[in-house]
Design brief:
With 599 residues, this protein is mostly helical. The chain contains 26 helices and five strands. The chain has a domain of 141 residues: Butyryl-CoA Dehydrogenase, subunit A, domain 3 (Up-down Bundle). The structure holds zinc ion.
């Protein structure tokens, strides 16, 4: 990797962020001072309001929430700085030490503040409703009503404390055990021992033999570990079943839907719509099989690259492409995105010790977001820049809602990022004159959308089958789990991809199923929402659409997602809504077919 760094200049070598808007350095005395101030605030809150929340009048409740919000903002400012600086050099002992210190400190602070949430959640209904409707509290209305939705599922304070303490050696311990087992696992490949990401990367190689051998290695290792992994999956599924029973959740997915601010009906409609269009997946993979010149496409062929790949992009070019696309949409979006470059809010330079991946950190409303990525000059990185700056613009605009209401739920959190990618993708393909390059770009986009929509929903179907079977049949053996996996995956590919017998066990390494059950459908939700919005934008043009879109971004998490989105003409409760986004993917597959046929 270091050889690579010296061999090629991407133009991003000097693109390093300036975190001084948070703190000057890890030794900044303001860090200690802010921790003490937040502690003092939490103590003051407890002394003034503990046992009193349900007896406050409107003015005092407003005052109390303001203090609570300030303490949370301070904790987030500290945590943001510690995380951000640590991501740039994970091997730096001083950064690691600060991160650990802030993590332990903020968990204590959260425990201290817990009473406030609980007392509000458990306050009598008529008191709560009066406060929610009170004009004095209008700014916090959504936070007040959204927090209350957990009421039917909360236990008493002593019960909550026991559950949270025992989870450390229960659920969390099993998840950590899984993470450590998988993290330490090595996969043999031609005499080498590869990490999981190393071996999975081989599935993207053009040489079929490389892909096949890599897939066999993954299967071999998973089969060896299958008794352990099956036991972990069973234990965590049973743990979830008992949690759901104690907290009176109707189905395995209900608690996730509640935290996503999505009703069971909306989510059911989404799943139903996506599974009804698996034919789009099958159509694309038949086309891909022909393009690769194969008689049969096996599971290990799905990620094979198409021949013509896009070239390299210098950082300055990437910046120009993204800002131009944003400018054509709305000047304000380009202006905000531009600040990230001119004010050093982006860290893009690759360097030793820097963690992988990319993110946009909202930090806190009193500061501004920061974007983190590793820029290598690939076309994919231009899309990543567009994606993270989409988040950045959204987070920048929603600061006006304050700490408690700036963040959207998971389902709409990917809206601005995916929309930004669509703007850039449309520009980039329009500019590519070589039909082969356009086809390769289109294929990448289709496969990304599939990964976000169809694959996540097919994984949701596996989770559904697993949790339902665990609740009805008791402990599941690995054969049963493998059957459920193969059924739900084959359903998506229909006859387009042949699932080898080896692929049966590939459910067992996917961490999302254990870390955050039910998580996966939120990706499909966000992407389909954006595809439908983007189609409307293309029909209507910018103007009023762009203005309304900016209003949605400014609203952040200050209302239920369906209300925030209503001005865009989107009705999330209408099952047909999801078909609009699916029709857009189908159009992309049409375009790919047309390019192949030289039309
Ligand atoms: Zn994102």
């Amino acid at each position: 990797m270091e050889a690579n760094l010296t061999a090629k200049r991407t133009g991003a070598e000097e693109v390093v962020w300036d975190l001084s808007d948070l703190y000057a350095s890890v030794d900044d005395p303001a860090i200690e001072r802010d921790m003490q101030q937040a502690d003092a605030q939490a103590e003051h809150l407890a002394a003034s309001y503990r046992g009193q929340v349900a007896a406050l009048d409107n003015e005092s409740l407003y005052q109390a929430i303001t203090e609570y919000e300030q303490a949370i903002e301070m904790a987030n400012k500290l945590a943001s700085y510690a995380h951000l600086i640590w991501s740039t050099d994970t091997g730096n002992a001083a950064y690691g030490k600060l991160l650990q210190k802030v993590t332990e400190w903020s968990s204590r602070l959260e425990q201290q503040l817990l009473f406030f949430d609980l007392e509000w959640i458990n306050a009598p209904d008529d008191f709560a409703q009066t406060m929610i409707d009170d004009p004095v509290l209008a700014h916090y209305r959504h936070w007040l009503e959204a927090t209350r939705r957990y009421q039917p599922h909360m236990l008493s304070e002593p019960e909550e404390k026991i559950l949270s303490e025992k989870a450390v050696t229960g659920r969390e311990a099993w998840v950590r055990f899984f993470t450590e087992v998988m993290g330490n696992t090595r996969y043999p490949y031609n005499g080498e021992e590869l990490t999981q990401s190393g071996i999975l990367a081989k599935l993207y190689e053009p040489d079929r033999e490389v892909r096949r051998t890599a897939a066999q290695s993954v299967t071999g290792v998973l089969r060896e570990k299958l008794p352990i992994l099956t036991y972990v999956f069973n234990t965590l599924a049973a743990d979830k079943a008992s949690d759901d029973r104690l907290r009176s959740y109707q189905s395995w997915i209900s608690s996730r839907n509640l935290s996503n601010e999505a009703s069971d009906e909306v989510v059911d409609a989404l799943i139903e719509a996506v599974t009804s269009r698996y034919d789009i997946v099958a159509r694309y993979y038949r086309l891909k099989r022909d393009l690769l010149g194969l008689d049969e496409l096996y599971d290990y062929d799905r990620y094979a690259p198409l021949p013509a790949a896009a070239g390299e992009y210098h950082w300055d070019r990437a910046r120009e492409i993204v800002l131009n696309a944003y400018q054509n949409f709305h000047p304000r979006v380009a202006e905000i995105a531009g600040e990230f470059f001119t004010r050093a809010w982006i860290d893009a330079a690759e360097r030793p010790g820097k963690r992988g991946g990319a993110y946009s950190a909202s930090t806190v409303p009193s500061v501004h977001p920061y974007v983190f990525m590793n820029y290598t000059g690939a076309a994919r990185d231009v899309m990543t820049l567009a994606h993270e700056l989409g988040h950045g613009v959204h987070q920048y605009l929603s600061r006006e809602q304050g700490m408690l209401q700036a963040h959207t739920p998971l389902t709409t959190a990917e809206m601005a990022s995916t929309f930004g990618e669509m703007l850039v993708f449309t520009d980039m393909t329009a500019q590519a004159s070589d039909p082969q390059v356009r086809l390769a770009m289109l294929a990448n986009k289709i496969e990304d959308s599939f990964a976000t929509i169809f694959r996540q929903v097919s994984m949701n179907r596996f989770e559904h089958a697993m949790h339902t079977a665990r609740r009805e049949e008791g402990e599941l053996d690995s054969e049963r789990l493998s059957d459920l996996w193969l059924q739900t995956q084959q359903a998506m590919f229909m006859d387009s991809v042949r699932m080898s017998d080896d692929y049966r066990v590939w459910w067992s390494y996917i961490p999302h199923f254990l870390h955050t059950p039910g998580y996966v459908y939120a990706y499909a939700f966000g992407e389909l929402l954006v595809l439908a919005l983007f189609a409307r934008y293309q029909q209507e043009g910018g103007g009023s659409f762009a203005e309304r879109y900016l209003d949605v971004l400014r609203a952040g998490g200050s209302d239920w997602p369906e209300k925030t989105l209503a001005p865009m003409g989107v009705d999330l409760t209408d099952p047909n809504f999801w078909q609009e986004g699916l029709a857009e993917i189908e159009k992309m597959v049409d375009q790919a077919e047309a390019l192949v046929n030289g039309q």
